[in-house]
Amino acid sequence: MIIIRNGTLVLPEGLVRGDIALEGGHIARIASCIAPAEGDEVHDAAGCWVMPGFIDGHTHLQCWTGMDWTADSFETGTRAAACGGTTTIVDYATADRGVTMPDALAEWHRRADGTCTANYAFHMAISEWGEGSLEQMDEVCSGGVRSFKTYLAYDHLRLDDAQTLEVLEAVRDRGGVLCVHCENGTLVNELQRRVISQGIVGPEGHPLSRPAAVEAEAISRLLYLAHLAGDAPVNVVHLSTELGLRAIREAKARGRQNIHVETCPQYLVLDDERYLEEGDDGFAGAKYVMSPPLRKPSDRRALRQAVLAGEIETIATDHCSFNLHGQKDRGRPEAGGDFTKIPNGGPGIEHRPAVIATTFEGELGPCDLVRLMSENPARVFSMWPRKGRLAEGADADVVVWDPAARWTISAATQQQAVDYTPYEGFEAHGRAHLVFVNGRLVARDGEPTGERPGAYVAR
Ligand code: URP
Ligand code: ZN
Ligand code: ZN
């Protein structure tokens, strides 16, 4: 048995001083004092918060995204996640056109099974819809998938509105949730063309081609479609703008139900001035080329308020890492490229808990961090009550968080297998001191122990 003693336990009912015992992959006991027996492994958590492991509901690992393979594999990505305190990820298995959903699910299992430090579940991203799709959906539901994704942008992935409506109805009928990438792809294509024709080809062109209205229009349309589908459950992923937030508020004010909202750390701490960063080789702005792009300070402030007000339920990463050198620099104008040739996405799977705990220090307490990064993702993605809470019988995914730790985020010391971090130099307040996945110690103070107990979470 593993016993974690003297910590402040972050329980669903609030903070309690006490001990917690892990055995056989589950939480065996929670009590004010658990006396160790001979052979028990004891960890002292004095001064620490003992929390349910964090869940990252939005990752892209070991994935071809249309432009390149992501830098992080399931092995490196889940190891990095665990070192930061994330004990479960939900990754987007993607059925590219011509690939069935069951085949995509099988392929994602081939990539992940046996290599993961953290637990993993899969959403199924759908890029075409037609004959046989309902049967395929049933098959992957039997395989433990309960959430799906569609895109309103990216020509090789996006569905039209009629198809999106049908997917919403199908997901509703299966008790799932549809995650949607909300950007109007037709407008993105046109604005990219206009920006380039003005001679703006560097990374600063990326946000100009995807302004807030492009996101807000897509969110608004999606929420009308979800209404037409009988208030089908939707998760608006990676919300980045105040205008998009307003579209969500308007839908809710119309009485619309079943709207979940996710944002990511990058939209809460970084601004679009980053696209002007030059770095050593004049191309550092490419680090921030992700979709949606980084936004104005006013957007950041609006999203932060929405997090504090509980309007945004979950904070995930959209971890989709590409190296600056050798991958993103394919879009260098000197090499004949432009910002549309830069693979979209950035890393964050390792640093989300520390970045959020730090940037909201004094505003969000330990119970709030658990709500946003453990409990709510577990509920939205059908893992509750097995995950997302400390309770006897729940899975033994536990983080012992030291709020007094001080450290600096840097690519030089990160586990993520990528050559930069957007949070370089960020002074973090708090750190995952001990991380347990399925009752096994996987990380200590940001370093992996080498254990890889991560298992598939069928939902
Ligand atoms: O730029 C990003 N976020 N790439 C990952 C795919 C997506 O849009 O979620
Ligand atoms: Zn997306
Ligand atoms: Zn994504």
Report on the structure:
This protein has 459 residues and is α/β, with parallel strands linked by helices. It has a domain at 54-359: Alpha-Beta Barrel (TIM Barrel). Helix content is 29%, strand content 23%. It contains 12 helices and 17 strands. The chain has helices at residues 74-84, 101-112, 133-142, 161-173, 185-197, 205-209, 212-228, 242-253, 265-269, 297-308, 352-359, 366-380, and strands spanning 2-11, 14-23, 26-31, 41-44, 49-52, 54-59, 86-95, 119-126, 147-151, 177-181, 234-236, 259-263, 314-315, 398-408, 427-437, 440-444, 447-448. Strands 1, 2, 3, 4, 5, 14, 15, 16 and 17 form a 9-stranded mixed beta sheet that branches. Strands 6-7-8-9-10-11-12-13 form an 8-stranded parallel beta sheet. Helix 4 crosses helix 7 (212-228) and helix 7 runs parallel beside helix 8 (242-253). The radius of gyration is 21 Å and the shape is globular. The two termini are 27 Å apart. The structure holds N-(aminocarbonyl)-beta-alanine and zinc ion (2 copies). Residues 181, 237-238 line the site of one zinc ion.
Tags for this model:
binds zinc ion; single chain; nine-stranded mixed β-sheet; 12 helices; eight-stranded parallel β-sheet; 459 residues; TIM Barrel; binds N-(aminocarbonyl)-beta-alanine; globular; 23% strand; alpha/beta
